[in-house]
Amino acid sequence: MTATRATADVWWKNAIVYCVDVESFLDLDGDGIGDLRGMTQKIDYLAGIGVTCLWLQPFYPSPNRDNGYDIADYYGVDGRYGSLGDIVELVRAATGRGIRVIVDLVVNHTSIDHPWFQAAGDRSSPFHDYYVWADERPANAEEGVIFPGSQESIWSYDARVDRWYMHRFYEHQPDLNINNPLVRDEIHRIIGFWLELGLSGFRVDAVPFMIEQEGARQPASSDPHDYLRDIRAFVSRRRGDAILLAEANEPLDKLPHFFGDEHGDQMHMLFDFIGNQALYLALVRGDARPIVRALRTRPLTPPAGQWANFVRNHDELSLDKLSDAEREEVFAAFAPDPDMRLYERGIRRRLPSMVDGDRARMELMYSLCFSLPGTPVLFYGEEIGMGDDQSLEARDAVRTAMQWIGDPGAGFSTAPRPAMTRPPIEKGPFGYRRLNVERQRERPGSFLSWMERLMRTRREWPEFGWGELTLLPAGDDAILAHALEFDGGQTLAVHNLSGKRVGAQLKLPRGAERGRWHHLLGSARPKLPNDGERSFDLALGPHEYHWFGRREGP
């Protein structure tokens, strides 16, 4: 299928997704914990900067041992954040401002506090088979550990039933038995419930682990991916424009299976973990070739399928798809202190602190994220260049409170600092007194102002989300030049990954001689290609970038 503007109603292709941990965004009732009413109050802010899709991390009732991903009730709202009525009001407010809302679907596991697992302590209960059990400790119990250093096994003993239960994550998160038809029915009910409240889809957590099959007592299918097809079909029946955005950090050869067949009968979107890691390796080396390799090997998507691009997410910056030597290169540059690293594979810092607040490199990375084919996803606070707090444990270092103003509490909360579950960063160049939304809004040259322009330009040129990719030779390995064509329009993006001045000799893609080129975004004002030119030269300073666009007509 060739995409045209008439078929561009697949909204996620040209969306700007913004991920929020409600607990860390805005505390409206002053108890030190962010809440849904605070989230609703900031919908106008999100609409103003250009967000079109809000992704909420778990807000369900939970003992909160894993940032809410240990769910104790799939149909409720944790009382610390508000009520179901608050969710409905948030969705209504967002929809009224053109923002769709998606939420985390976490059905690989539950909390041990979930009523299902509590009932599973009785072998005669139907809930016992909601989970994955073994009579003896499996010989491979130490294999496949997700959190090295914090987790020793993926099987734990339950004295209530004298059996071992499986947990790919922490021992307080027992895996659900997807082979059980009753579990699959429950998951359908969960999905249907939230779609009825007006949601536009789900970010599906830990998808590869969700479809693992242990044993064959109640096999879901000879092909585990049949279950993902089943979920997709159910979602499409309930709401045709709802999406499934999958977390599937898998090797290249496995990724196409999560999109499904040539029409796309499983996940609508996948996070591009391989491309994300290539960005950091390229930045460290000052060499665009890691990104070029990632783009050339990136599997093709179905017509409505899409990659989700990101600079930072809510977990550690995983470098697991790099070689050992490549990972050490990135560690040495961006996490020289071993305490900045996590689980032997990742970095627990945000980009601004990794590059010491260097504006040029920050702009370069977000320019790449927004101009490479795919849909950009932001983690809250990225739009102002928030940093991290290395005094916090593990992943919490990047989950500090949103910094709204320079007053005590950063505008996040009026509670005393010790009462805040996620206090804002207080000291250093990323402290809230120096770095906050209010201060940046007052400055036309601020990072927030630049990010607003980036988001606006990205939305105005759907070629970036829909276009067919052409990688262009540029005459220097430091330069990434790529064009995207969609429905007669073209965009061209050129990035210098190095810290030195370079010259690009660009050969424009076919059809580029039709229509006038416009300079859309960049860190300087460059020469434009002349009408009818098929090639032109471009001088680029250190970490300089440019976006150009062309459509037929003026």
List the helices and strands and how they pair.
Elements: E1 17-20, H1 36-41, H2 43-49, E2 53-56, H3 84-96, E3 100-105, H4 115-119, E4 133-134, E5 155-158, E6 163-166, H5 181-196, E7 201-204, H6 207-210, H7 225-238, E8 243-246, H8 255-259, E9 269-271, H9 273-285, H10 289-297, E10 306-310, E11 317-318, H11 324-334, E12 341-342, E13 346-347, H12 351-354, H13 359-371, E14 375-379, H14 437-441, H15 447-460, H16 463-466, E15 468-472, E16 479-486, E17 489-496, E18 502-507, E19 516-522, E20 535-540, E21 545-551
Task: Give an account of the 3D structure.
- The chain is of the alpha/beta class.
- It folds into three domains: 5-108 and 181-457, TIM Barrel; 115-166, Alpha-Beta Complex (Oligo-1,6-glucosidase, domain 2); 467-551, Immunoglobulin-like (Sandwich).
- It is built from 16 helices and 21 strands.
- The protein has helices at residues 36-41, 43-49, 84-96, 115-119, 181-196, 207-210, 225-238, 255-259, 273-285, 289-297, 324-334, 351-354, 359-371, 437-441, 447-460, 463-466; strands spanning 17-20, 53-56, 100-105, 133-134, 155-158, 163-166, 201-204, 243-246, 269-271, 306-310, 317-318, 341-342, 346-347, 375-379, 468-472, 479-486, 489-496, 502-507, 516-522, 535-540, 545-551.
- Strands 1-2-3-7-8-9-10-14 form an eight-stranded parallel β-barrel, surrounded by four helices.
- Strand 16 and strand 17 (489-496) form a beta hairpin.
- Helix 9 (273-285) packs across helix 11.
- The two termini are 28 Å apart.
- Residues 4-8 have low confidence and may be disordered.
